[in-house]
Amino acid sequence: MALHKTIPLQAQHMLEAAKLRRIALWHRLPGLRDVHSLHEDRDYWVTHLLRTCTILGAMVEDRLVGVIAYRQGWIEQLYVLPDFQCHGIGSLFIYRVQEAMDETRLWTFQRNAPARRFYERHGFAADKETDGSGNEEREPDILYHWHRPPDWTSHASSTAET
Ligand SMILES: CC(C)(COP(=O)(O)OP(=O)(O)OC[C@H]1O[C@@H](n2cnc3c(N)ncnc32)[C@H](O)[C@@H]1OP(=O)(O)O)[C@@H](O)C(=O)NCCC(=O)NCCS
Question: How far is the CA of 65 from the centre of ligand 1 (A)?
């Protein structure tokens, strides 16, 4: 894969970010309940996530291939396009968050085993599980928590990006 760079995303990127999330999530979890249209999703990125989160995009040439949205204490969104997964982009995003804060939490769906393994490798531990009755997709989910251990090593010099 060509080297990528990470940039802060702005309002004009939010439609692409919403599309990317839909592609990555339904590729990983086919059959997941689809509760919003693409344009509703885009509005959520613009009116909620962009106002409350830092949103970074991974670009390969001029194409958006990965996105993360995070705020103090929480990762709200993390998605990489299927063809660009397993090249270190997700890890690079996680390192950015772990550099920026001492602890963070995120929700993922229980049946998303690859994402769970990915988070656990990055030091996240399960906090609690739900039966999904509280989320829009009605899908059992799990809350993960990371806090910086005393022996934590910075990955600031990671070379996965240009
Ligand atoms: C979960 C997700 C964000 C991870 O992003 P990613 O870019 O694939 O993450 P990485 O490439 O850093 O790591 C993924 C795996 O590839 C491996 N990997 C990383 N760089 C690699 C390389 N150069 N060569 C081979 N393998 C590599 C990692 O060891 C890791 O293995 P693990 O999952 O068993 O821990 C991504 O897979 C995704 O978008 N999934 C679908 C949507 C989703 O589930 N999002 C999370 C919702 S909460």
Answer: 13
